[in-house]
C-alpha cells in the first residue's frame, strides 16, 4: 500500500513537471507578470500566458471605463464630435476652422466632443468654451503622454486606457461627426463611424469632412476605386459622407 502511494506521488510530480515545461500558468516567472501594469491599457503584455492570467480582471477595468463614460454623458445634451490632427499649431488655418466650427455648434444648441488633446481637439474645445457650451474631452493614455487641453470642462473630461471604449463614447453621443485634416487616428475614428452607419449598428448621422484640398483625394479614391472600379461599396454608402470647406456649410448639413 505504501509503495503504491509513493508511486502515485512520483507520477503526479512528473505530470506536474511536464505541465510546467509546457508553459502552464504555474511556470510563469514574476518578471513576465511584472510587465502588466495598471493603467497602461495594453491588451497584450508579457507573453501569452501572462496575458491569460490577467484577462479576467481586465474585464472589470474595461467595464469601469464604460460605466464612467455612460454616467458622465447621461447628463450632457445633444453634441457633435470634432476630430483631427493633434499636431496642428494654434496659428494654423485648420485650427481656426475647428474653433469656428465648435462655436457655431454651440450657438445651434449642441455640445462639442473631442479627443481631449492638443491641435484640432484643443481648438474645438476652445471654441465651445468661448461660446459658453459643453466642452467635452475623451482623452487617452498614450506611451508618450497626451496631456488634456485646458479648454475642457473639468467635470466633462475622461482619460481612457482603451481606444475601443473611447470610440464607443464618440459615436454613442454624437449627432454628427466632423473631421478636419488628420493622420491615422483621424482615419480610424472616421472609418469606425462610417462602418457603424453602413452596417446599421448606429442611427445614421452626417459625417462631414472639412477641407476640400486635404480630403478630395480620399473622397476620389472612395468613389472611383472602392465603389466604381472594385464595387466594394454602393452609391448609398456615400449618402452620409459630406465634403465641405467652411463651418457654415457643415452646419447646413447638420441642420
Number of helices: 9
Rg calc: 24 Å
Taken from the alpha-carbon principal axes, the silhouette is: globular
Unreliable segments (pLDDT under 50, ≥5 consecutive)? 11-38
Query: How many angstroms separate the termini?
Result: 87 Å
Number of strands: 7
Task: Please give the largest β-sheet.
Answer: 7 strands, parallel
CATH fold annotation of the domain at 66-213 and 240-254: Rossmann fold
CATH class of the domain at 66-213 and 240-254: Alpha Beta
Strand content: 5-15%
CATH architecture of the domain at 66-213 and 240-254, please? 3-Layer(aba) Sandwich
- What integer is the average pLDDT? 86
Helix content: 40-55%
Order of helices and strands: HHHEHEHEEHEHEHEH
Secondary-structure-derived class: alpha/beta
Strand arrangement across the biggest beta sheet: 4-3-2-1-5-6-7
Give the structure's gist in a few sentences.
The protein is of the alpha/beta class.
Walk me through the structure.
- Strands 4-3-2-1-5-6-7 form a seven-stranded parallel beta sheet, sandwiched between helices.
- The longest helix is centred in the first third of the chain and has 26 residues.
- Helix 4 runs parallel beside helix 5 and helix 4 runs parallel beside helix 9.
- It is of the alpha/beta class and about 260 residues long.
- Helix content is about 50%, strand content about 10%.
- About 10% of the residues have low confidence.
- It starts with a helix and ends with a helix.
- The protein has a domain of about 160 residues: Rossmann fold, CATH 3.40.50.
